[in-house]
Amino acid sequence: MSPMIRHIVQRGETLFLIAKKYGLTVNVLLAANPDIKNPSLIIPGQAIHVPSLSKTIVVPQENYDYNKMMSDLDALSTVYPFIKVSTIGKSVSGRSIPAVQIGKGIKKVHYNGSFHANEWITTLLLMKFLEVYAKAYRDGKYIGHFNVKNLFERTSLWIVPMVNPDGVELVQNGIQPTDPLYDTVMRINRGLRDFRGWKANLRGVDLNDQFPARWEVEVARRSGLAPAPRDYPGPSPLSEPESRAMANFTRSHNFRLVIAFHTQGQEIYWGYRGLEPDESIRIVQRFVEVSGYKSIRYVESDAGYKDWFIQEWRRPGFTVECGRGTNPLPVKQFWDIWGKTIGIFLVGLDV
Q1: Nearest to 242 by CA among 194, 206, 273
Q2: Which class for 9: exposed (0-12), middle (13-18), buried (19 or more C-beta within 10 A)?
Q3: What's the CA gap between 76 and 127, in Å, rounded?
Q4: Which end of the chain has less neighbouring CB within 10 Å, N or C?
Q5: What is the predicted pLDDT for the residue at 18?
């Protein structure tokens, strides 16, 4: 018999709508709930048993966009009710930026993806890990040699799968003339309708150059001081709603470790101006062992999210550059990247 999900009827829900939500028929629900004599008479607060088909929710595909992510989050939080989805803020265009909590331990860890618009495959990686991790916990399974139940009990993982939703939408779906920022975006992109090289948010600000970690040094390093598809640090630190949301979110938690997932290069950056703690060396060595990626301590860069976290908290912070090639990486690379990064996801929860 399939495992059951316990669904609490919400106001306005019908048995047909509930069945549709889970990809079932009304007859399947009635068979699982013999106490329901009249399908038209269900009331808010009533518990209904829903057979779980355990079908895959997160499917690697080209143009894994904002709406698809939000739909998958809704489905995941329904099938796995211990997943908690909240909102940390809104983008320039008013899209909600979701954060997902899974696990209940005192130790808090944070992963994020898609700071850069054309690196959207990192969102897909995080969403797939969320599903695989949740399913393993529900089913009492290990992932490799990792005891998922123990990780879940010890560690609370917070994921922000898409920091830059407007940018991802722009790269994947373009922008319509009816959008209030259409003229601005087209001017920044020099009239081109190809946005594959776009990393910034919709105002042409690079969100990973926005943090108050020697921001002024980063500004001096950049040659252009105007909105651009990439590398413009903005008019001031945290000038953008997306970077402010990430800063406020981070300040509101006591994270033991953070990892920002980017593409590409198969490298792991882990130091910042000598402020990183000694244990970061041990942790990055474990990341290298499970991924085969190259460890790089310092690069000539400031004002990044990882830099700011290390500077402010003196705790381990990492930027993982997944895959190889030209961004946006094609989804055909997904499973190869997955095989190298799943160990990083799990080690990050274990250290």
Answers
A1: 206
A2: middle
A3: 9
A4: N
A5: 87
CATH superfamily label, 66-166+240-350: Zn peptidases (3.40.630.10)
Q: How far apart (Å, rounded) are the C-alpha atoms in residues 328 and 171? A: 9
Give the other-Cβ count within 10 Å of 3's Cβ.
11
- Max Cα distance, the chain (Å): 72
Dihedrals phi, psi of 322, to nearest 5 degrees: -90, 145
Alpha-carbon distance of 300 to 214, in angstroms, equals: 12
User: How many residues are there in the chain?
Assistant: 351
Q: Provide the CATH topology of domain 4-51.
A: Membrane-bound Lytic Murein Transglycosylase D; Chain A (3.10.350)
> Among residues 68, 114, 296, 145, which one has the least CA distance to residue 208?
114
- The whole-model pTM stands at 0.86
How far is 192 from 30, CA to CA, in rounded Å? 54
* Cross-strand partners of 7: 48
Q: What is the pLDDT of residue 248?
A: 98
User: How far is the C-alpha of 240 from the C-alpha of 212, rounded, in Å?
Assistant: 13
Q: Is 322 within 8 Å of 264 (Cβ atoms)?
A: yes
> Which pLDDT score, from 0 to 100, does residue 5 have?
79
Q: What's the rounded Cα separation, in Å, for the pair 174 and 169?
A: 7
Tokens 């080690």 label which residue? Answer: 347
3-state secondary structure of 140: coil
If 0-12 CB within 10 Å is exposed, 13-18 middle and 19+ buried, where does residue 181 land? middle
Indicate which residues carry an active-site annotation. 321
279-322 pLDDT, tens digit per residue, is 999 999 999 999 999 999 999 999 999 999 999 999 999 999 99
Hey, which residues does 200 pair with through a beta bridge?
none
Numbered ranges of CATH 3.40.630.10 in the chain:
66-166+240-350
The answer to whether the CB of 286 falls within 8 A of the CB of 320 is no
In DSSP terms, 108 is beta-bridged to: 156, 255
Residues of the chain with pLDDT under 50: 1
- pLDDT score for 1: 41
CA dist 232 and 222 (Å) reads 7
